[in-house]
UniProtKB/TrEMBL annotation:
Signal sequence, start to end: 1-19
Top-level taxon: Eukaryota
Source organism (scientific name): Sander lucioperca
Transmembrane segments: 157-176
Family annotation (PANTHER family): TRANSMEMBRANE EMP24 DOMAIN-CONTAINING PROTEIN
One Pfam assignment: EMP24_GP25L
GO CC field: endoplasmic reticulum membrane
Domain GOLD: 29-112
Protein family according to the UniProt entry: Belongs to the EMP24/GP25L family.
InterPro entries for the chain: Emp24-like, GOLD_dom
Topology within the bilayer: Single-pass type I membrane protein
Protein name listed in UniProt: Transmembrane p24 trafficking protein 10
Location(s) in or outside the cell: Endoplasmic reticulum membrane; Membrane
Length: 188
């Protein structure tokens, strides 16, 4: 059972759209809650078996985003200005004198997606970054080629100078150590 729950959780997290189906008893109501990010478009489609119901979509402040009465099928979409939480509520009413009313089957599909303008802005930003990186790469190549052409000091000359400095330092250290130990009378 736990593996099934993990599998379903992964499937829900990877898909920005989720569907839910439930039975709504007569003269009752059910609400579903979900979080929504700023400027994210939420699209919903619903279908109910009978038309004696009321659908309400409200945000966390209690503002009504959508309401519909006595409809068996429909869709709606909305976006909020802030990171918010919204409630999707279905209320079932049986008409007076109708007797026993079976439970209503309710199907709800909710999809959250970013606006196309936002995606277009992101793609243009990525394209501009690639153009900038290409330009920087060309500038670095030009700088490297100029340094190679100038040949300020050839690498072999720099190596010879480094070895000579090392030998001079080693010779001086040898004479200094010898004089130090003679003054301490450790060697003759």
């Amino acid at each position: 059972m736990s593996r099934l729950c993990v599998f379903l959780l992964i499937a829900v997290l990877l898909d920005p759209m989720f569907s839910i189906t439930f039975y709504l008893p007569a003269n009752s109501g059910k609400c579903l809650q979900d979080n929504i990010y700023k400027n994210v478009l939420v699209s919903c489609e619903y279908e109910t078996a009978l038309y004696f119901n009321v659908k309400n979509i409200t945000d966390s402040f209690g503002d009504i985003l959508y309401t519909q009465e006595n409809a068996t099928k429909g869709n709606f979409s909305f976006a909020t200005e802030n990171h918010d939480q919204f409630d999707v509520c279905f209320n079932s009413r049986s008409p007076m004198g109708s007797g026993w009313v079976p439970d209503q089957l309710v199907q709800l599909d909710i999809e959250q997606r970013t606006p196309k303008r936002h995606l277009e802005h992101l793609s243009l930003s990525v394209a501009d970054d690639f153009i900038h990186l290409k330009k920087r790469g060309e500038e670095m190549q030009q700088t490297n080629s100029k340094l190679i052409e100038q040949k300020c000091l050839n690498p072999p000359i720099i190596s010879i100078i480094s070895v000579c400095c090392f030998l001079a330092l080693a010779t001086w250290q040898t004479f200094y150590s010898r004089r130090f130990f003679k003054t301490r009378k450790l060697i003759e």
